[in-house]
Fold these 2 entries.
Entry 1:
Amino acid sequence: MQGTKEKLSSQETHTPSDSIHASSMPRYMTLLFAVVCGMSVANIYFAQPLLDHLSREFGIDYSTIGILITITQIFYAVGLLLLVPLGDLLNQRRLIIGQMLLSVVALIIVGTASSSTVLFVGMASVGLLAVVTQTLVAFAATMAAPAERGRVVGMVTSGIVIGILLARSISGILTDLAGWRSVYLVSAALMLCMVCTLFRVLPNVEREVKTLSYAQLLSSVFMLFVQERVLRIRAILALLIFTAFSILWTSVVLPLSAPPLSLSHTAIGAFGLAGIVGALAAARAGKLADQGHGQRTTGIALLLLLISWWFISFTEQSLLALVVGIVLLDLAVQAVHVTNQSIILTLRMEARSRLTAGYMVFYSIGSATGSIASTQIYSHYGWNGVCWLGASVSAVAFLFWAVTLRATNAALQRRPAWK
């Protein structure tokens, strides 16, 4: 194992500019990264409330239009494996700006699509290129000073969660005002503005990687899982927490839109605002990780995740209970996610993009698993069944953390910045 690790390291040489955190990352830069990440990830969620419009306009059967969302998510996962690792090989500034420019083109293709084939190609491209968010997270970790890295990662990833939660509401509002095409054309215009801004402010971090081909770069993602126990543990936690996250947000529309509640889509979308409160509150988790409390933060957050399902189970009797549950769940999931990334991004400075890529693949698997499982459980066992499923996954996550606590601490003790 040690020989493999040394072989991988010997294939990579980096310029000193890889470590550019001599001073703190400006707050405006952190906020800019968060905004860009939120806008980029929102592009793959805009279509969810638009499926009925797209079905009618392009003559796609209701039973198959959902494939559009699946294709977008599949290509996002492909991008995680094929594009994000390039951040360890290429100039990150050029990579980010290039991907965002291509995203602008993809959004215009979707917004002007004249056939279902063009629509599907455009959405696949949008999903593939949305992984620029993860390149930005890794770049932010590189720019941040070690003492503030967790806080910076926390703020940037909070932007991602807020983008996901707001995407549906923004999509619905723009569609009501100017039609579904305006969603993608407005996003393209805003993304172009962000490209111009990043072109002006992003530092040019040159790196030199010798004797490491693209194929070796991709294979090294899998080698990192073999070599880094902490990465394996935190990736499994990511799978479990995002399964729980997806269980709620995929299925909550079903009891809210059905009698006796029968809420409108606008009212249902407003519950995403409660999730934003939790996501913002969790940004502090990164700061706690910077102070060496990553493990404790994880345990408390996972316990809150389990408790949140008790409140969520009363959805049909009390919407206030649902709001409390949503805040707790989003707070817990985001706190664990921020802590996970804050920890794994310290494992290998030269492989931050690959660490992020490998970790986020488990995020994608968890999201897909939660979406499929929750709708199936709801159709057979109703909302109570969904809540038991979510609570069970959350309990497994807490138990897994407890069982691996000693092993994780042993690994982190070899890195003084973490406890």
Note: The radius of gyration is 21 Å.
Entry 2:
Amino acid sequence: MRYFILYILMMGAFPLYAQTTIKGKVVDKETNAPIDNVSVYISNSSNGTRSDAEGNFTLTTRSQGQFELVFSIMGYTIKMVPVNTSQQTGFLNVALSSKSNDLPEVVLRTYIKDGWKVWGKHFLNQFIGSYPLSADCKILNPEVIHFQFKKLDSVLIAFANETILVENKKLGYLLHYDLSEFRYDFINGLIFFQGYPLFEDLQNSTSKKVLKKRMEIYEGSVMHFMRSLYTNKLRENNFEIRQMVKTINIGGKPIIIDGNTKYDNAHKVSFELTSGVLSADSVDYGENENTAALFFKNFLQVTYTKKVAPAYYSRSYNTNGQGIVSEITLINKQPLLVYSNGTYYEPTSLLLSGYWGWSEKIGYLLPFDFTPIKSEITTLAEISPILLGGERSMRYLVAIQNSAEARGTGGILGAYA
């Protein structure tokens, strides 16, 4: 019942904040003819619309700050337009390029015949996730996904000519995913994919079972951690962070490694915790009134103490079952900018491993306008920043680096740039 109570509170909070109405027209870049039925949406949200017969669209949002407006339709190249609600948004004239005119892309994107039969299972494990992430979650149109394999570099590339439709019954979403890039580097064990998701509620989205599952996925997630870091409430929300150093043995000498270190699974990775439980303000600070900055050296171990990892994960990767444990490191050795709704930037800077390396995939993906139930929020002041978003809510990027100590679970580089 409290789910519906929170919904009422959310609706009551909205009038306190200005809505932004975005209007515009979508046309063909070559002919200037209007394009109807174009999907227009705020990336990684449940907020979208379509253009009418004259190419016109109207989208109303309560999201505040900067975000990307995505324009997608079959036969045209996806286009992203940055929108900042702190500035006056005029009428948008958006011109889409036909894919048939993009000759370099057509020439380069020859693909493997029957590629789904060869690479489909591997793609699903890395994109959707393995069981139980993949339970009740399936791609409805796998025929739009094609593959290339570069033998010289041992790199698998996947791309889609149309929007990928992912039905996730356990979370009550139909995910419209415009895939920009997917590649798997077999030599270095690195997986990277990025795209633009739009969430649509399924008919079961209001059931107690689905709402409970969404909250279960949220608790202990990267989104939950970043929101807790932003509000300086890590301990209150059951997160513990500790400094960590990792080493590998080369020629009898321990070598300190970071997210940029190249090594194979033959190397045994050792780690040492070099601090006790740290406070949030020991690793983050206020960049400005809307942004926090996360900075630390080496690795940071993150433990979510409220629940243990799922039994399947514990059995598969031989964990001790004492809370959910993940590690993060800053590849670029620069501060990571964190926003109120849990997004963070720069997307290529954060490398995750451990539990998050296994769990942070499409099968467990939530939109950044997701609002947790009342047990996690006590005041409207805490509700509103999450509802309204942060400075960035754009593309979803993921990269996974397999590591020996994770026994193949890998690390995940997840970001919303």
Note: The two ends are 35 Å apart (CA to CA).
